[in-house]
Design a protein that fits this description.
Layout: H1 2-9, E1 18-19, E2 22-23, E3 25-26, H2 37-49, H3 60-79, E4 86-91, H4 94-106, E5 120-124, H5 133-142, E6 145-149, H6 159-165, E7 170-176, H7 188-197, E8 201-205, E9 224-228, E10 239-244, H8 245-248, E11 261-264, E12 269-271, H9 285-301, H10 303-322, E13 327-329, E14 339-344, H11 349-357, E15 361-362, E16 364-366, H12 371-377, E17 382-386, H13 393-410
Parallel strand pairs: 3-15, 5-6, 5-7, 7-8, 8-9
Antiparallel strand pairs: 1-2, 4-10, 9-10, 11-12, 13-14, 14-17, 16-17
Length: about 400
């Protein structure tokens, strides 16, 4: 697979550059992946031949843009296994999608919020702040109680722990498909089913899985799933919330204004039907086109091919990094993850990341927008390497050697 990855790298022009005089090894894919030529071409083609606003014009370019936008929606619905009972809403990314759910269930925009005083919301401590902070706000807004499903000392979630939290007032359960700070891949399928069987609405943050594992809605007890284009070889500033229509119907709109209304008078507004009701304002049509092209790229390469490659690289990185004195990889045994987040004794991650950058290696350092998880584990900031289809074992070797050299210098 390493040789194939080299071939893939040739399709990603952003990787063909030197940093500080050496070839770039881009290992920050959990934050943002690069885009292949076929995605760049799709966006460029739209912007040069079909750029116009959708749904509001009878001229040719507007019709082309509308068709491209609607086609992108259908492509992405198929990509995640959405059926006739589902709908997909375009957002600016996973953060907006999750805020849309949390706000929509706790705001009185449709007359009465779904969440009320005394209800309970369960989130896990593995979450990115984007799937944690909005639920804090929803609890304050509605008077609901926020409960946290905490991991064991190794950072793993267990169904038995969730069973102890579920109760007759549980209205929402939110969980990640992959912890971006630790690389832990929780048993989200079983957790979602348990919460759904208890009568809760279920929310899945799929941002860290959609680029390789691609959760399948047709087989999940999932009411809402959020993901981003820029973590699946697509553009920045575009994402999606896909969910069951009956659940989406209960969300109060987050953005009020153009294209999400049916009729407006001086004193009253009637909202449009889904999905327009939840897509107020001029959409990122080019981003939607690029995101759909990225889904086609993943399908062309093969989900299993990508998943197998990045997971194998992660296992190799765990082995190589664990050989280094004073280095501990979090969730070292977690399956099907593309993230290797590690701690280093006597060396701050920011210093380590700076030295790695001078060797042409791009990693992420810090709290990774997941402070509750780091608090639960009793640790501070980490260094995170994360992998995509274009990465190679040789780049992992470069990473391990550069970490060893940097630690010697910092110590």
């Amino acid at each position: 697979m390493a040789d194939s990855a080299i071939d893939f790298a040739r399709d990603f022009p952003g990787l063909a550059q030197d940093v500080h005089g050496v070839r770039l090894a881009y290992l920050d894919n959990a934050a943002t992946t690069h885009m292949p030529n076929e995605v760049l071409d799709a966006v460029r083609d739209f912007e040069t031949t079909s750029r116009a606003n959708i749904h509001r014009g009878v001229h040719t370019l507007s019709q082309r843009a509308t068709d491209a936008f609607d086609g992108a929606r259908e492509q992405l619905k198929r990509f995640v296994g959405a059926g006739p009972a589902h709908e997909l809403v375009f957002t600016s990314g996973t953060t907006e999608a999750l805020n849309l759910v949390a706000h929509g269930l706790s705001d009185a925009g449709l007359g009465r919020p779904v969440l009320a005083a005394g209800d309970e919301i369960i989130v896990t401590a593995l979450e990115h702040h984007a799937n944690f902070v909005p639920w804090q706000a929803a609890a304050r807004r509605s008077g609901a109680v926020l409960r946290v499903l905490r991991p064991d000392p190794e950072g793993r979630l267990h169904t038995e722990a969730l069973a102890r939290l579920l109760g007759p007032r549980t209205r929402v359960f939110a969980v990640t498909a992959g912890a971006n700070a630790s690389g832990e891949r929780p048993p989200f399928e079983a957790l979602l089913k348990m919460a759904a069987d208890a009568g809760a609405m279920t929310v899945l943050d799929a941002a860290q899985a959609v680029g390789h594992e691609v959760p399948d809605l047709s087989s999940l007890a999932c009411d809402f799933m959020a993901f981003s284009g820029h973590k699946m070889y697509g553009p920045m500033g575009i994402g999606a919330l896909v969910g069951r229509r009956e659940r989406l119907e209960r969300l109060a709109p987050l953005r009020l204004g153009g294209d999400m209304v049916e009729w407006v008078t001086e004193q009253h507004t009637t909202f449009a039907e889904l999905p327009a009701r939840l897509e107020g304002g001029t959409p990122n049509v080019g981003g939607a086109v690029g995101m759909a092209a990225a889904a086609k790229f993943i399908e062309r390469v093969g989900r299993d091919t990508i998943d197998g490659h990045v997971c194998a690289l992660r296992r190799y990185a765990v082995d190589r990094l664990s050989e280094l004195p004073g280095v501990r990889v979090l969730s070292a045994d977690s399956p099907r993850t593309a993230i290797a987040s590690f701690l280093t004794e006597d060396a701050h991650p920011h210093d380590l990341g700076t030295l790695l950058d001078h060797r042409g290696i791009a990693v992420r350092t810090g709290n990774h927008c997941a402070q509750p998880l780091l608090d639960c584990l009793g640790i501070g900031p980490t260094t995170r390497a994360s992998f995509a289809i274009y990465n190679t074992r040789a780049e992992v070797d470069r990473l391990a050697a550069a970490v060893a050299e940097a630690l010697r210098a910092l110590r």
